[in-house]
Amino acid sequence: MSNLHRSAEAAVAKAREHGLTVATGESLTAGMIAAVLADTPGASAMLQGGIVAYQNEVKSGVLGVSAELLAEVGSVDGRVAEAMAAGTRTLCGADIGVSSTGVAGPDPHDGKAVGRVYIGIATASGSFASSYDFEGNRAEIRGQACAAALEQLLKALPS
To answer: What gap in Å lies between CA 5 and CA 93, rounded to an integer?
Structure first.
């Protein structure tokens, strides 16, 4: 079993143990976080749903990310990741929202280098984002981002 699937199993178990629900708002990972969680037995008790918000119009129109913020900083930014997680949490009625945005390559985007990734987490007490600089091809960067999102989700869940 891969580390990715171990992390998903741990997140599903912790969320279920505490009766918490999770939703994903994904750009860079395009549904991968939700899919890995859904592959885990017991996920139906905690996974509310997920939104793939690849384009800025979806980030703003569906997830409620400020169009002004997107125009100012671009889609690859910690504040955008926070807003995506918060919007997803609200939209799906979940206890925790998890988001991903970043640059998988092959070219930089919005002035951010290939491999720059932000993972957002939103709970009732607020939201935060973590930044990462990954290396590899598109698939490897997306996989590393998914693993980072599961790690941040685990940290957000009660012990």
So the answer is: 25
